[in-house]
Protein 1
Amino acid sequence: MTGWLFVASNCLVALLVVGLMFLLVAYFSLPVRSFSEGRRVAQRMLRGITGREQPVAFVKEGQLNYPLEGNHNKTPKIILVDQTSVVVLSGRAASKASGKRGRRFRQDRLPQSNSRIRVAGPGMVFVGSNESIRGVTSLRNYFRSADGIVCRTRDGVEFKTSVSITFSLYQPPTILKVGYVANGQEDLRVLKFYPQMNVIKILSDELDDQDKAEVHKAQRVGILPSVPLVTEETSRGFPPYQLDEAAQNRISAAVYYRPRSVTDNGLDDWTDLPLEEAIRILRNMMSKETYKDLIFPDPFTQSPLIEDYKQRFSSVVCNRGLLSYQLIQRVDGSPLAAGQRIDEVNYQIYSVQEFSSSNILRERGITVISAGFTKL
């Protein structure tokens, strides 16, 4: 009897030592961030030793390294995500592996209104039994360009140009300073300041009617004042990335956008959308002007109007992405003008508000950083 107890105790100690070894290997050699994650890795390593397959996938620079075509019935249970990427998981219920309840999104952003999605990474991601991979994406800024884009002017002149755009899912919305040059909704302008100064340089008419109506309504209803003026925007374009709920919502909305391609009947990627929208905007702008007006110099500035169009084009495209505004008004009710210095005594500065009006880029959580086109 004593011999059996000795053997049993030795076996128990051996199992505990093996389990501890797996736990230490998982915790110190893999990108786990807590003891519970290390424990789950150790469990999966033990399952692999016992013959129960635990598929592993890798995500690097927004690219998934896992042969989904040959593993339709094998969703990876562990995904190793690099520091510049995230993975979007979908399921019918909250994942037990995540330790958090899934979030419910608007029906117009997801194919199924009862779907729950989770944005995970960077690091080691554990996939729940009820979850599947919806998509992966990079948190870095994206750059897309296209050559040989054909445009036509109002008088039928055809020309080719190249269009480029830089955009991001991780960057926060751009903040525009806006104000009135008169009293009407159509008199709203975007304020441009001199560098490192609160002096108005120009007032640009670049907001579309939908955004003007939203600002004008907020001004009439009343929004809480907030000082001082927001002069700098925090850039979060470099790792390590910290994903707040707003960033996760933007990523989810973009990854779920998978329109069917008109060329090969496949599914387009969300990263194709910003460039397509920029090309559409450019063609629409050029169709309203004659070729002579674009090429020949302005009699006052002696520079071709096309240079002005490049700036207008960039502003229009950037304003189609995620956008916030900060309304500024004079205390005495006078209109704003170039050369005025904004201060907290003579000007009412309102809190930053995010535009809620809908367009195709904002709905997908895309912030446009810059856009442009080459010479005609």
Protein 2
Amino acid sequence: MTDEVAAALDRVAASLPGGGETREGQRRMATAVGEAIGGGRHLVVQAGTGTGKSLAYLVPAAMAGERVVVATATKALQDQLADKDLPMVADALPGGLTFAVLKGRSNYVCVQRVSEVGGGGQRSLGTGAVDPPDADDPLTAGRDDARADPGRLGDQLRRLVRWAGETGSGDRAELDFEPHDRAWAAVSTTARECPGAFRCPSGTECFAEEARKRAAEADVVVVNTHLYGAHVASGGAVLPEHRVVVFDEAHEVEEVMTASLGLEIGPGRFRALATGARSVLGAADNDDATTLAQVAEAGDLLERALKPLAGQRVAHRVVAGGEAGPAAGDGPGLGEVVTLATGRLDRLIGLLRRQAGAAEDDEPSGDRARRDRLLLAAGHLADDLARLVALGDDDVAWVDGGQRSPTLRVSPIDVGPVLAERLWVDTTAVLTSATVPIGLVGRLGLPEGETDQLDVGSPFDYRDHALLYVARSIPDRRRPESEPAIHDELEILLTAAGGRTLALFTSWRAMTAAVEALRPRLAFELLAQSDLPKPALVEAFRADESTCLFATLGFWQGVDLPGPTLSLVTIDRIPFPRPDDPVLQARRDRAGAAAFGAIDLPRAGTLLAQGAGRLIRSADDRGVVAVLDSRLATAGYRTALLARVPPMKRTLDRDEVVAFLTAVTADR
């Protein structure tokens, strides 16, 4: 298949504007992907920026003769594949290629919920009346902004109902406005609630089911990595049957799978169930009313028990009730709350089932649909509570969300064993990224004897086109004079670059301090991440070449700014992971003395490489990556970190950097 894949890649490349170009790394990757699919061996490919890795896996995927699922980490890449790359491959290759994009159920408007919100039963509810929500409505409960403006969510609901009668896909991404989360929640559903097409009165009109049908008939299905994680967690019940999966942005897979294979329980799940059950059960007798009140109270008790634990790991014996845990005021401890909540939830499920058994044949379909959703949501919550009691040594539990919205979360410490059991045995995987983390194969549980690894490099001339500068003179970050020194360094560098800077920070506090210090001192516009939504920020930055953009971790990857817009990327410090991250803490405990080299250093190296990778995005780009952390020049571990960064010429001389940036600016 090697020659066939190479020839097909040439045909696709020839269809690009200007006739395309031959990229040796792309060809090597494409043939390796074809061999992996044909031979049933896993493949991990590091493909540097400019390789054209999307086409390198899409061409052999199109020729596989079976369904291939492509999982991406970002919506931007998902859109690029569906709107640009896959149509081009389909046009260039004979035989026809079908493809589909599939998103999680909550991304599609729910026809049944629209009918309930609109007060009718037809999809043409664009003219249906929607009463403005009040302070007792679950949409607005607990939200000061909604109570202050009672028409805000009501207006959004009316727009959503009208749109639901007009849209062809039901995909939230088609909206021309960004709805409030609670407004969207009123017209959508999640996999934890949806009873499925056969049990839903609107199942034949369901947008999510239509998307699933298109995916089941497609040769290539594009999903996001989180949805693939849900597929693995469900035992393979989410996506169409397939034998081959491609993970693009493979450095994200471990983190996404860690979240997907875990669970989270917050007070809101109990309160939402109680609110929904009141509307379904109607005028309940005293015992039933007591059960509803107790379920709602379980949410309050859980919140009270979680608050003293906010930001902390939680011992399994505390969750299971074998130990009291920190004081929770006058209420029961966490373990007691789990036991109480389980009993109350069982009683609520019993009430709903009895009502279902006593329902008349002519019961309104909307009432039945609401009850089915509640039963499913309650069942999922009961299952999660049962998992809490049975936590093992391979799980870590902690309280996230702070004091205002504490949530109990659980994740596996290592995802490798679970993936080895559930995924790699029956599925051939291709994993690719511009930066593949060290040790990824082992951490993901890929079988070493059945996994090949390849690095195809990058076609860009980093050594002549880019400098890596480490500001060795910056004082230790623990000293108070460090931050003013960073601001002074930034002023010099940004001025030499004539703006054109993406300044990356490892914390919001550091970014905010830099913005406040430098805005009065710079002659060009400075945009901060907090100023606009991400897409608008990127467009504003791209529109004015002299603009600078200061941002945090969300901009270290997935931002593509080729051309004269960007000449300088600054990184305020080596991006080591947080020391208090609960999952990483648990992994460090397991690694013992080797923890820094096995856990922290690989993650810092990958993120540092991703940040530095924002600079050179095309063959003509030139510029500087400046790391304002002297440890990259002095620490014993610097060699391991520098090995992850693109092969730029390195310097400690600021004058050399200023001269280089001045020359680049003059050439623009």
Protein 3
Amino acid sequence: MADLSTVLYLILYGFYLIFWYVFELGKEIRRKVYGTNEIPLKKARLGRIIFRRKRDAEEIARREDFVTVDDRFIDKSALKNETWTVYSLDKSGVVFVQLPKKLQEYTIDKYPFIFIPMFEEAMRTAEMDLDSFLSLADELEVDYKPPKTLFFTNTARCASTLFGSMLQHENQSIVIGEHSSIISISIGHAENYWSEEEVEKLLPALLKVIRKGVPSDKLFVFKGASTEVKLVPFISKLMPEIFHVFMFRKKGIVSVEKMLLRDPQQLLLAKIYQFSPYLTTLFGFVSACEGRFYRELKPKEPKEFAMIVYGAPYYHYKKNQESFDFDVVWHNELIQDCETVLKPIFEKLELPLDLLATAKSCLNRDSQHDTFLSQSAMAGIQATEMTEEIKSNLRRYAERLQMEADVSGLYE
């Protein structure tokens, strides 16, 4: 059973959402009165942020995170400026936010999760319809050679932020950590919100907009969240020049369970999801990240939910293994002998090998320092007891997710 504080927090957040929808209805009425309900061709609607609220720092970005008032219309070309980036997208349109710095300055070594400053530092918003967004993206790489690009996917809690930091080198590469607008496409497609045709239009446009302005002679790395591995087949088909690498951690279920226990609301919403996906996603989308396997395997205990979050990316990796340009990066091997692991990756991506020593030095610090997943933040969270019944269920899940015995660690 969820504790009372968790339930009360969700109820309070529910009141915020009700306020947000009522406020938006008032804005729509005002727009119709003043004849501004339609965004003019080649324009975007500018918004002033008067309040911001997310259910949790890890929750997927969406337009409900900001309470805004209409400012004016601006030319859509203004969004080509590198301080503007996509915050969220849905069938109503695309929401951009303007940051105090260029997006490419929010590198993973300083900002492990870029969705945090995108929410906290957003100065104003701009909204446009999906067709205008696609048109804007088409203009970005006409007279511009895009940078060499790596799409890096992984499971949760596998030191992927550490690996991303090892790829970040000034004047050589730019690594951006977990741009949650990409996550929303992955979850949306898995939940039948976005059709395959829509993903094939929106995903390349989104990647182009995110990497706009990155110098052609640098390596650009999208360091994704675990659910983004589902998008690899689309990117391989539509943007075959992009490289792909996948990272995983053997015997990593306990670490993932602790991550889920950090946010008891997410765990409660994941349980509700099995009965009402619609109700769950009203509060956010992170609890639906592996909805397909939640529906199929029907987990009940925290370890069972954790096993799905942990193992599902591995399933998708194995299913589409031919789309990846490198062998899987194993957590234990990266920690124990990072230079051997990194050397073929550096060579293929044309990063100077003399940077390997700098990359190795990343082992000396917590790559997620000062975040909700830092070592200090996670230190006090205890995993639940492993019973024989739970272990039996986890083995069944592991078999379904095509995890070998030495990978799951459940037969020791």
